[in-house]
Amino acid sequence: MMPLLSDVHTGTGSDTDLLRDKLTLLLDSTGEGIYGIDLEGRCTFINRAGADMLGYRVAQVLGKNMHDLVHHSHEDGGHYPEEECPILKAFRKGESCRVDQEVFWRANGTFFPAEYSSYQIVDGGQVRGAVVTFSDISKRRQAEEQLQRAKAELEVRVAERTRELSAALKQVRQLSAHAHSVREDERTRIAREIHDELGSLLVALKLDVNWMAKRVADREPVAHKCEAMNRLIEAAVDNVGRIITDLRPSILDHQGLIAALEWQVQEFSEATELPCEVEFDIAPEAFVPDGAKATAAFRIFQEMLSNVARHARATQVRIAVRLTPADLVMEVEDNGVGAARAALEASTSYGVMGMRERALHFGGALTIAGARFAPADGMPGTLVCLRLPLAGRDGYKNQG
């Protein structure tokens, strides 16, 4: 424990002077301010660095109440009562303290932010005073303020950039939705033209071949050729019908979304020959989506089933469609090989991205997770779920 300089009295005069000189050199060798106070808060010693920081000579500080001298006011100029001073409260309770959010006042009336620590002086089991070390942390405070300003500026820039990116993303999504809409319109137009023009020509050609066949029945080679031509025309009609359906299923326009989804499930089941557990739960009071929203839901559903057929290697599929007044939920679950998250989130996963973008445009969400039912041969399976909110009357009333 460091003694008070005024209490150094043991030994011969030369020993006392030598000890005092050593203590003075020790105190003056540090760049921090150090002073001691007695139980009344009066200064018993102070080193040169401390006096310089406070703008006093050492002799001007000794014997003065240090709280009244340098700690009398808060940073805003408000009075700092002595009974609230952490230094005096701590050492009188036999405790130590460390504070870095207050100021010390100089002789010229200015102040500086200070960090100080107080440690009690104990002699013979009794507290006789305290030693206080302090330093000017103005540069540190300035650095902290600069850091806060830089952080605030960075947050503003990030917020601005986020708004710009959000606006750009919104424009991209609007462009994507417009592209989907234009594509659907073009598909509808092409399907209609194929139906009206090519379909009519094929029907007329079939009628002509039938007319010709009746007039050459007695000429076997020509009759066989007419029969072969008739079969080719019928195959062409079937292919044209398939192309038209792929371009734009007429059932979607004529019978609505639910009928189109049921038709798509039947087509999938017949094409893949996979066992399908199918559930359609349509609330009578729900409004079935139509227009662009119905088209988006149907195309997403097509992509779900197409992914199962192409990639899943499944032996069982569960399909669920639920329509309530609040939302449309479509789930396709298989017990196949599953898909890695990295593959689903890759920039080249155009099918998944397309489904998500279509869903987001209408405020919906597409999620992909592991299958919930028992997978086959330990394979994880995949569950793809589309949830599309229905705001108010956004379709036609379901009639059950």
UniProtKB/TrEMBL annotation:
<dbReference type="InterPro" id="IPR013767">
    <property type="entry name" value="PAS_fold"/>
</dbReference>
<keyword id="KW-0902">Two-component regulatory system</keyword>
<feature type="domain" description="PAS">
    <location>
        <begin position="19"/>
        <end position="71"/>
    </location>
</feature>
<dbReference type="InterPro" id="IPR000700">
    <property type="entry name" value="PAS-assoc_C"/>
</dbReference>
<dbReference type="Pfam" id="PF00989">
    <property type="entry name" value="PAS"/>
</dbReference>
<dbReference type="Pfam" id="PF07730">
    <property type="entry name" value="HisKA_3"/>
</dbReference>
<dbReference type="InterPro" id="IPR035965">
    <property type="entry name" value="PAS-like_dom_sf"/>
</dbReference>
<keyword id="KW-0808">Transferase</keyword>
<keyword id="KW-0418">Kinase</keyword>
<feature type="coiled-coil region">
    <location>
        <begin position="137"/>
        <end position="171"/>
    </location>
</feature>
<feature type="domain" description="PAC">
    <location>
        <begin position="98"/>
        <end position="149"/>
    </location>
</feature>
<dbReference type="InterPro" id="IPR003594">
    <property type="entry name" value="HATPase_dom"/>
</dbReference>
<protein>
    <submittedName>
        <fullName>PAS domain S-box protein</fullName>
    </submittedName>
</protein>
<keyword id="KW-0175">Coiled coil</keyword>
<dbReference type="InterPro" id="IPR011712">
    <property type="entry name" value="Sig_transdc_His_kin_sub3_dim/P"/>
</dbReference>
<dbReference type="InterPro" id="IPR036890">
    <property type="entry name" value="HATPase_C_sf"/>
</dbReference>
<dbReference type="InterPro" id="IPR050482">
    <property type="entry name" value="Sensor_HK_TwoCompSys"/>
</dbReference>
<dbReference type="Pfam" id="PF02518">
    <property type="entry name" value="HATPase_c"/>
</dbReference>
<dbReference type="InterPro" id="IPR000014">
    <property type="entry name" value="PAS"/>
</dbReference>
